[in-house]
Amino acid sequence: MEKEDSKIKHDFARFVFSTISDQIKQADTKAFGVLGILGVLTAALLSRLASIKSATGITTTWIVLFIISALLIVFALKLVVRVVFPRLATNKSNEKSILYFRDIINQPKAHYVQIAQSYSHEGLLTSLYQDTHNQAGIADAKFSTLRNALIMAVITFAWTITIILLSYN
After folding, report:
1. Which of 4-8, 84-88, 118-122 has the highest mean pLDDT?
2. ∠68-73-79 over CA atoms, to 5°?
3. Among the four residues 4, 120, 128, 166, which has the most C-beta atoms within 10 Å?
4. Interatomic CA distance for residues 71 and 168, integer angstroms
5. How far apart, in whole angstroms, are the C-alpha atoms of residue 65 and residue 25?
6. If you compute the radius of gyration of the chain from its CA atoms, what whole number of angstroms results?
């Protein structure tokens, strides 16, 4: 029975670690979707600006409105980049993780293999939960920034589309 409990604990820890890894990938994927939308907005804005400029000339008012649109797009892009920019958890303890790539690569290969092989089942479980907690912090930061990026993208979209539509009058 104790062996089954140990297996359940390890399977659960791996499941949580894998789930959080997937959530981090989902945040990145969503950010790239927002990036695509911002690219289309930028193209539409520049196209409309070129049309106005060649057809009737552009007034100071339109220049200011288009500059505001451009600034909103740049700000939204900055937030999107912050979502996908790699975040590295900092290891606050002196003990090196056997799962975190930065801790692994900062050790000689033979030393890492020796340390990893010396872990007990409970030690592996503890290390996995510590790294899962670090990953959860990364996922939380990504999703918080993604939420802000989405809000900014919606504001940018609404503003830019309004400016484009008004420019036809």
Report:
1. 118-122
2. 130
3. 128
4. 21
5. 36
6. 24
CB-CB contact of 73 with 38 (8 Å): yes
- Residue 132 corresponds to which tokens in the numbers above? 């899962």
* Predicted confidence (pLDDT) per residue in 115-159, tens digit: 888 888 888 888 888 888 888 988 999 999 999 999 999 999 999
Q: For residue 3, give both structure tokens.
A: 């062996």
Can you tell me which residue has the tokens 């939380």? 140
CA of 148: how far to CAs of 79, 83, 164, in Å?
A: 7, 10, 24
Cα(15)–Cα(9) distance, integer angstroms: 10
Q: How far apart are CA 119 and CA 138, in angstroms?
A: 26
Residues 6+ apart with CB under 8 A from 135: 17, 20, 21, 24, 89
